[in-house]
Amino acid sequence: MLVLEPGRISELARRLANAERDAAEIEPLTAELPSLEVEQAYAIQAELVRVKDERIIGYKMGLTSKAKMEQMGVHSPIYGVLTGRMFRPDGAEFPLAGTIHPRIEPEIAFRLGRELKGRPSPEEALAACSNVCAALEIIDSRYKAFKFKLPDVVADNSSCKAFVLGTWQPVPTIQKLGALAMSLTVGGKAVRNGNSSHILGNPANSLATLVGMLSDRGLRLAKGAVVLAGAATEAVALESGAIVEAEVEELGRASVTAR
Ligand code: OOG
Ligand code: MG
Predict the structure, then answer these.
(1) Kind of pairing, strands 87-89 and 160-165?
(2) Which residue is closest in CA terms to ligand 1's atom 4?
(3) What is the number of alpha carbons within 13 Å of residue 75 lying toward its C-beta?
(4) What would the CATH number be for the domain defined by 6-258?
(5) Torsion region of 186: left, alpha or beta (phi above 0 gives left; psi -120 to 50 gives alpha)
(6) Ligand 1 lining (C-beta closer than 6 Å)
(7) To test the ligand 1 pocket, which listed residue (71, 79, 137, 160) has its Cβ within 8 A of the most ligand atoms?
C-alpha cells in the first residue's frame, strides 16, 4: 500500500486549496500517485476542509445516479463537505469569476431535525429530517478538463463549489420522495429531466448511505446539518447570464443567476 506521510497529505490538500483559490486547474493526483486509495483521499479531503477553515454545515453525496456516474466515468457514490461559504440563497447571483469550468445540477436537500449516526435504514434516516427542499449544486472540479478517477474527486471535496437551497418543505412520505419528477431549466427551457428515483432508488437511500460512510470514519450528522442527495441528471456547463432553476415535483424550485 502507498504510504502517505501527514506532511504529504497536507501538501496535496494545499495543492487543491490553491487550485481553487487561483482558479487554476491541476493534474489529477493519481497521475503522480497511481496507487492513491480512496481512504487516503478522504484524509486529503478532511485536511483540505481544515486548511480552508470554513464552517461545516453539512455534506453532499455525489455520483448517486447512473446519469452522473456515466457522465463522469466513476461508478461509486462519494461524499464531500458543505461549508457556510458555499451556501447561496435562492435567487442569488453567482459570480463565475474565480471558477475554472463550473457546471450545475439539480438536487434534493435534507435538513436534519436531530443527530444521525451509525447505520440507519432509509426510513430511519428520513425520520430524522425536519425538512426537504429543491436545490442546485455548482460543481467545479479543480482537475484539468473535469477529468478524474475516484480518489482524485474524493480528495477534491467531490468537486463542490457552491449550492443553492429553495424553500424548506415538510418531509414527504418515503414513497412520495422516491418518485418526484425533477428538471433543470436554463432561461426557462428544460435542459435536463430526471426523477428522484434515479438517486440511488430514493434520496432517502442516499442519506442513509451517507450516514454509514460517515460512521465508517467516526463521523456523524449533527442536528441542523444540510445534506445534498446527489444530482438526478447529468450536470450542464454554467454560462454567464444563465438563469438556472431546479424544479422538483411537490418540493418547489431553487434558482441562481450566473454573472
Ligand atoms: C463529482 C461530484 C458529483 C453529484 O451530484 O453526482 C456530484 C463531479 O461530477 O464532479 O456532485
Ligand atoms: Mg452534486
Answers:
(1) parallel
(2) 62
(3) 1
(4) 3.90.850.10
(5) beta
(6) 60, 62-64, 68, 72, 105, 137, 139, 141, 153, 158-159, 230-231
(7) 137
Residue 1 has pLDDT above 80, yes or no: no
Predicted TM-score (pTM) of the model is: 0.98
How far apart are alpha carbons 53 and 210 in whole angstroms? Answer: 23
Backbone angles phi, psi at 172, to 5 degrees: -75, 170
Nearest CA to ligand 1 atom 10: 159
Domain spans, the chain: 6-258
| Three cell numbers, residue 20 | 481553487
Q: Which residue has the cell 428538471?
A: 183
Ion ligand 2, residue ranges at CB < 5 A: 137, 231
pLDDT digits (tens, 9 = 90+) for 172-229: 999 999 999 999 999 999 999 999 999 999 999 999 999 999 999 999 999 999 999 9
